[in-house]
Write a structure and sequence with these properties.
The chain is an alpha/beta fold. It is built from 9 helices and 16 strands. The strands form 5 sheets. The chain has a 5-stranded mixed β-sheet. A 3-stranded mixed β-sheet has the order 2-1-16, with helices on one face. This is Arginine deiminase.
């Protein structure tokens, strides 16, 4: 299979996306969930049903869905299907324009799935497209920490799972991919701020929905020419994006971690606080599709975490 990746934003029509199913193992009790850094116990049968609903919703929207596990060599599949976090595919890689950057696991528990997925992607993409580094990847970079705002700018959190060293290593590749600015934020290091997309997300092409505390955090804006600091709303305004701050987030996963299917359609968790979408955002002109992914969310990630866009028109 040969794929021509193309992603310049978070809101274009989603043409091709990567997913994979949850693990074949249950997480039977709260102590086990805590030990593997999940929020709650998970029933694998319910998780599979949730995942099937998500895939069907994507396909109904006209999106081609690829399960990367289908392309693993036979000898790798037994391990892969037992990896608890394997369905959080967003972190594994990111398409910047027409360039694919591989991620680096921020925790040792996730390293095997990165190695396996990257071996698959080496067969999907040309060498000058997929910038594979293999064992040279020394610093973590999980792409739940990245939002592609538009053709000019990307927004990246350096926190628990993505290091500033990794960003320094990859920033030239991002500029070479066609972007002119990288906005860097450093979120508080807590479980509910694990990734950027648990704290903010693009709604269409001109609005960033963000948790209210983010208005107080400075952003370092990096270009080829240099660096400067500014507040988040000022960074966004440079790119004609409005910040919409909300204090009504009861669950960072279900409330913030939604997926734009196209400029007018958003795929959200049925557990999301509907006040945010119906009253605060007033999305009367947009279609909000709700799906039940509650069992999957107990692993600590939402719909966006479970999907890796390869092509957006």
């Amino acid at each position: 299979m040969t794929i021509n990746p193309n992603c310049w934003n978070e809101h274009g029509e989603l043409k091709t996306v990567v997913v994979t199913a949850p693990s074949v193992w249950d997480v039977p009790d709260q102590q086990t969930a805590t030990d593997v850094q999940w929020e709650k116990p998970v029933d694998r049968k319910k998780a599979y049903k949730n995942h099937e609903k998500m895939v069907r919703a994507l396909e109904r929207a006209g999106t081609k869905v690829i399960d990367y596990a289908d392309y693993l060599p036979k000898e790798s599949r037994d391990l892969n299907e037992k990896l608890l976090n394997r369905y959080f595919v967003r972190d594994l890689a990111c398409v910047f324009g027409e360039t694919v950057l591989p991620g680096g696991a921020g925790t040792s528990m996730r390293k095997p799935e990165y190695v396996q997925a990257h071996q698959v992607m080496k067969n999907w993409f040309e060498e000058d497209v997929f910038l594979y580094v293999g064992s040279e990847q020394k610093h973590p970079m999980e792409f739940g920490d990245v939002l592609i705002l538009n053709r000019d700018a990307v927004f990246i959190n350096v926190g628990l799972r993505t290091s500033i060293e990794s960003l320094e290593h990859n920033k030239q590749a991002i500029f070479n991919a066609g972007f002119s600015e990288i906005g860097i934020i450093d979120l508080p290091r807590r479980a509910d701020t694990l990734h950027l997309d648990m704290n903010c997300n693009m709604v269409g092409d001109d609005m960033l929905l963000a948790r209210s505390y983010m208005r107080y955090l400075p952003v370092q804006v990096v270009t080829r020419e240099g660096k400067q600091y500014m507040m988040l709303h000022d960074f966004l305004a440079r790119h004609h994006i409005k910040a919409m701050y909300t204090s009504n987030v009861s669950n960072t996963v279900s409330d913030i971690n939604f997926l734009n299917l196209d400029p007018e359609t958003i795929l959200v968790s049925s557990q999301a606080n509907q006040r945010i979408f119906s009253k605060e955002l007033n999305l009367k002109k947009k279609q909000v599709i709700k799906i039940d992914v509650e069992e999957l969310e107990k692993g600590g990630g939402g719909i966006r975490c479970m999907t890796l866009p390869l092509v957006r028109s």
